[in-house]
Structure formats: C-alpha cells, structure tokens
Design brief:
Blueprint lengths: L9 H11 L6 H23 L12 E6 L4 E6 L6 H9 L5 H8 L23 E9 L6 E6 L5 E6 L5 E8 L14 H12 L6 E10 L7 E9 L16 H10 L7 E10 L3 E9 L15 E5 L2 E7 L11 E5 L16 H24 L1 H24 L2 H4 L5 E3 L5 E2 L1 H6 L8 E5 L3 H5 L5 H5 L4 E4 L4 H8 L1 E2 L2 E5 L17 H17 L6 E4 L8 E6 L4 H9 L9 E6 L4 H12 L1 H19 L6 H12 L1
Parallel strand pairs: 1-7, 11-13, 16-17, 16-19, 20-22
Antiparallel strand pairs: 1-2, 2-6, 3-4, 3-6, 4-5, 7-8, 9-10, 10-13, 11-12, 14-15, 14-17, 18-19, 21-22
Helix pairs in contact: 2-5, 7-8, 8-13, 16-17, 17-18
The protein binds adenosine-5'-diphosphate and magnesium ion.
Length: about 625
C-alpha cells in the first residue's frame, strides 16, 4: 500500500504556533537578536577555515532602532545574510532551521555557540508585529532580497537594494489593544532593559541610539536632546572568563549589575564543570537577609542561561529550599529545551547540575566555617535559621547535609560552636550532648536546671531560636552521641554515693511529694525530689518527647491543638524551703497548700510561662509576709 504524506494546514499551524508557544511576548526580541548573533557567528566560523575571509571583530554588530512616530522597530545585523533560496527555505518553511543545519555541517569545528535549532523563533515577531519585512544580502553576493509577510497569509519575495552584507528585519508594531501595550516595544529604555535581560551575553555588540538631554553649551539651564549610540550588552559572560583574571570587584560588579541583591555578596564561588555535565556557574551568598526572605513572597532560584541566552529568570529546581538564599546564574549548553526555548521539565541534565551545585554550596560553607569563621558567623546570623529549618523539614531527610553547618551558642566562652567542635572536646565520662532552651542566653544562664550539668563541667548548647530544639530532636544523635535537654528527667550523670538519699529519706518524702501532686492535680503530672537542683528550691521539667519550650512554640501556632508537655515539678529537698514545707505538711494543711501553690507558680515564672491567676499569686505572697 502506498504511504500517504500528512498534510498540514500551514496557515492554522503558524497561527497556533505564534500564539501558543511563548508565554511572554517580549521574548521576540531575544529570538531576533539570537538569530542575528548566529548569522555573525557563521561568518566567524567560516573565516576559521577560509583564508580569503578575515574576521575583524569591529565590523560585526547588531543594531536595534525604534521609530516611535512610525511604529517601526528595526533589528539589523552584519551577519552572513541569506540568498533567495535560503530566504525561501529558512523563513518560508516552518520548523526548518538553517542554523541547526550549519551546526551539523560544522560539527568538527567549534560551532557550538550557535543558538538556533528549532526553526520557529523568527515567527515570534508576529506576536508583536502586523507586518515583518526582512531585507538581506548574503555574504559573497551582490544581490539583495526582500521577504515580506503579514503572518499566516503567506509571504512574498522580491529583489531589493542593500549596500552591505547582512540582514535587516523591520517590524511594524501592532496598535495597543485593551489588554496589550505594544507601545512598550518602541520605547528605548524598555528595549534596552530587554536586551540586558535576555541578551546581555551575546558575544557581539548590540547597539542602540539612546536619547538623553544635556545642558546647552554656554547656557545655565537650557537642555538639548542628544542621541548617542551605545553598546547595550556586556558581551563577555564573566563566567566564561578565567577565574584567575577576575577580581573580587568583578564579581561584586556582576552581582550589582544583575541585581541579585541590594547588598554586597559575602562570598562567591565560580564553577566551571566539565565532567558528566558541562556547565558554568557563579553563585553568591548575600551579605544580608532579604527583607522578604522568611515570607511566602520570596522566590528562590538561579538565572539559567543556555549558550549565554537567558532561558529562565528564577530556576527554582536548581536550589534546594534550605539553600534558597543563594543567588547567581548557571549557563549550560547541555540542557534540553523545548521549542519555546523553555526548559523541559524533569530534565536529567538539570537534575545533575542541581546536585552538583548543592554539593558546591555545602563545601563552600564548610570551608568558610573552617577557615573564615568570622565571615561564616555573619552568614549564619543572616541565614542560619534557614539551615535549621532545612534540618527539620521533610522529616529530617537533609539533616546529613546540614548538621555540620549548624552553630549554637555554647555555655563555654559564650561562643558559637559546631556540633563537631562540641563532641570533639567532650570529657570522656560525658555521655550526652547537653542543651538548654530559652528565649535568650541570659535567661538560660539563670535556669536552675542547668546547675548540675554546669557544675559537672560539661558544656551546654544554648538554644535560643524557636526552631532549634525541633532541629536538634530531628538530628537525634550526632557522632553516636544523643542530645539531652538539661530539663529532661534522667540526665545520665552519675551521682556521688554520699549525695544519694537513703531509702528512709525517700519514703519519708514520698508522702509529702504525693500530697503536693494531689494539690497540683491537672497542672503537673508529678512532683519529684530533684536530682539536678543545687541552690534553687524548684524547677519544672518535662517527661516525654515534648519539652516545655516546644509547648510554648506550638502554642503560638494557629492550629496548635493545645498540646501540652508532661510537666514535672522538681523540689530541691536540700533547700531550706523544703524544711518549711515538711513542717507545714505535718501540722498545717492550709499552709502546705499555700507553699505548694507558691512554689509551683515560681517554677512557672522561671520557665517563662504565664501563671494562671496572678492576683491570687500576689495574694499568696502577702499571706506569707504578714
Ligand atoms: P532557529 O534560529 O531556531 O534556526 P528561526 O525561526 O529563529 O529558527 O530562524 C530560522 C532560520 O532562519 C535560521 O536557522 C537561519 O538560518 C535563518 N535566519 C533567521 N534570521 C536570520 C538572520 N538575521 N540572518 C541570517 N539568517 C537568519
Ligand atoms: Mg532563532
């Protein structure tokens, strides 16, 4: 059976394509400039193997001119141009790419900078233009041709006059509609911004006539309009330059120029990877926390370039959430793009790059922590919270990557220490990594609970950020050492035999403590003789997973379900107060109740918890005083 060819309604196809493949109209300029750059590149590559052709860089450029009065935008280049046949083939056949063919023909040489590949970009011009005119003269030819089209209806080709080799594309910009402002594509400042955004690293100058005003010579206040030709793009992608030639200032200038932040970068890393995946990247760690950083509005991501042309402004897939503070760009030739030159989702190369980048950031930060501690602490002040969230989130999936980047204030010297530093100087008899929680270092230092551990000479991590304890609980143990709150029931510290209460003492106290427990029914789970208090009479501790600090934090959340820690009131049986309590227990029930309530409320206050009835509390104090 004879095979039949598919027929396509090319008019409909073109209409569909023009209106559906691009999400933003503004990218037409990127597409036309990329084509112009390819056309110049083709001369450049030809000259490599053709001795009769000399490539003088100064002769090659792209020029963008807006004529507002006539609603005309022109993009001209001094590239290789097109013959009549090429015009017919490249602009008359949709999805035919002369550039892809050129790249294939020149595979052996280095044609890899050529951007074009799909054969559709040119038609994006019809998103903003009613009519497109292409006047072109091919390299080595005396004749010029003109291609004119109003879009889907077809095109015509006639001979034309053109003095120089190259191509000039004239767009008749559409009239504004209710929803679309086409006028913006005739505004110089807007066009310049678009060139900067998408085509900043095109290797040839993109020139524009920029209007400005300057004072008339010899006059005080009169201004005159001047037109000046400017090269708008930076041309040399800094990431393709040799690292050794670049200074700190170059990187800082790049950071400012690309508006990654309003601050200075604290640190950068320049990556030129050519292993399993080839890419260049420059990554920055900002100095300051962006004002919206810890809000939903903040959007993470790196700029993504393919061959120096911007593909995506914020590619979120390149950064894990816990490194969302990192700014910068990635450029790779290896990405699979779809025909609108957007990134294909789930691109394998992209995943590889992302993984690579994650590891680079990690080692950058680790290096900083080790060798530039002051810088690192500055960074940690700005973004440490994000790292701790990272440890906690996704059920601790990333704790392995992050735990060595954490710092906590230590009871020793009140300096920030890493977990590694803590563990490596633990005395041999110390079994746990101790921590204490509270709203500030000063507050924690006054907590009765820390007394025993401090007296033992053990270091304590002071957790002052609300996320801290959640992160610590997620890590669970570090280098085989478990974390232990100084408020936890069993501190794992051996008591001296002589300090241990005798059995008789324990029995004697048992009744009293149970009596207190009954009076505090519903408020605490138990009342116990404390093993940790030295100079303070009471404190609260928690049994089970939920600590008192965690209860406080959860209480601030909107859907907290009113979860409570299992609280234990600990009494220092060696304190004088306990003697009074004992006396009251035997003789005066009312006094015993009064003392019990007072001690419980004191313990609440020390913990930073609110007491249920402050008036009653002060009345109770008065009762003791009179
Ligand atoms: P692509 O760039 O992906 O190949 P386009 O639709 O943008 O697809 O362009 C189609 C073809 O038209 C190009 O491959 C190239 O051969 C030709 N072309 C477009 N613009 C120019 C230009 N300014 N100079 C020379 N050739 C051009
Ligand atoms: Mg193109």
């Amino acid at each position: 059976m004879a095979k039949k060819q598919f027929k396509a309604e090319s008019k409909r196809l073109l209409e569909m394509m023009i209106n559906s493949i691009y999400t933003q109209k503004e990218i037409f300029l990127r597409e036309l400039i990329s084509n112009a750059s390819d056309a110049i590149d083709k001369i450049y590559y030809k000259a490599l193997s053709d001795d009769s052709l000399v490539f003088n860089k100064e002769d090659y450029y792209i020029k963008v001119t807006a004529d507002k009065a006539n609603r005309v935008l022109t993009i001209a280049d001094t590239g290789i141009g097109m013959s009549q046949e090429e015009l017919e083939n490249n602009l008359g056949v949709i999805a035919k790419s002369g550039s892809l063919a050129f790249k294939k023909d020149n595979e052996a040489k280095d044609g890899h900078n050529i951007i074009g590949q799909f054969g559709v970009g040119f038609y994006s011009a019809f998103m903003v233009a009613d009519e497109v005119t292409v006047t072109t003269r091919a390299l080595g030819s005396e004749e010029a041709y003109r291609w004119v089209s109003e879009g889907a209806d077809g095109y015509s080709i006639t001979t034309a006059e053109k003095e120089t080799v190259g191509t000039e594309i004239v767009l008749k910009i559409k009239e504004n509609t209710e929803d679309e402002q086409y006028d913006e594509f005739l505004e110089e400042y807007r066009l310049k911004a678009l060139v900067k955004k998408y085509s900043d690293f095109i290797r040839y100058p993109i020139k524009m006539d920029m209007k400005s005003q300057r004072p008339v010579e010899g006059s005080e206040d009169e201004l005159e309009d001047v037109v000046e030709e400017q090269t708008v793009n930076s041309m040399v992608p800094i990431w393709r330059r040799n690292k050794n030639e670049l200074t700190e200032e170059d990187y800082n200038a790049f950071y400012m120029d690309k508006r990654y932040g309003f601050d200075k970068p604290l640190k950068h890393v320049h990556i030129s990877a050519d292993g399993a995946v080839v890419y260049n990247a420059i990554l920055f760690i900002p100095e300051n926390t962006p004002f919206d950083y810890y809000t939903k509005e903040y959007e993470k991501g790196l700029e993504l370039y393919s061959n120096g042309v911007l593909i995506m402004e914020k590619c979120g897939d390149l950064l894990p959430d816990y490194f969302s503070f990192v700014k910068g760009m990635v450029d790779s030739e290896d990405l699979s793009l779809n025909i609108s030159r957007e990134l294909l989702q789930h691109d394998r190369q992209l995943k590889l790059i992302a993984k690579n980048i994650k590891n680079k950031i990690k080692s950058l930060l680790q290096g900083m922590m080790k060798d530039e501690r002051e810088q690192y602490e500055k960074f940690y002040g700005a973004f440490g919270r994000q790292l701790k969230f990272g440890v906690y989130n996704e059920y601790g999936m990333h704790k392995g990557d992050l735990q060595d980047l954490l710092l906590f204030t230590s009871s020793k010297e009140k300096k920030q220490v890493s977990l590694d530093e803590y563990v490596s100087r633990m005395p041999e008899d110390q079994k746990f990594i101790y921590y204490a929680t509270g709203s500030s270092v000063e507050r924690i230092e006054r907590l009765p609970q820390i007394e025993l551990v401090s007296d033992k000479g053990y270091e304590i991590l002071y957790l002052t950020d609300d996320i801290d304890e959640f992160a610590i609980k997620m890590i669970a143990n570090y280098k085989e050492k478990e974390f232990k709150s100084v408020s936890s029931g069993d501190l794992g510290i051996e008591e001296d035999e002589k300090d241990k209460p005798t059995e008789a003492e324990e029995n004697e106290n048992k009744e009293l403590l149970e009596g207190m427990g009954a009076l505090l029914e519903g408020k605490v789970k138990a009342v116990k003789a404390s093993k940790r208090l030295k100079s303070h009479p009471v404190c609260l501790s928690a049994e089970g997973e939920l600590s008192i600090e965690m209860e406080k934090i959860l209480a601030m959340m909107p859907d907290n379900n009113n979860v409570k820690a299992d609280k234990v009131l600990e009494i220092n049986v060696n304190h004088d107060v306990f003697q009074s309590l004992k006396a009251a227990f035997g003789s005066d029930k009312e006094k015993f109740n009064l003392y019990t309530q007072l001690l419980y409320n004191q313990a609440l206050l020390i913990e930073g918890l609110t007491i249920q009835d402050p008036v009653e509390f002060t009345n109770d104090i008065c009762k003791v005083m009179v």
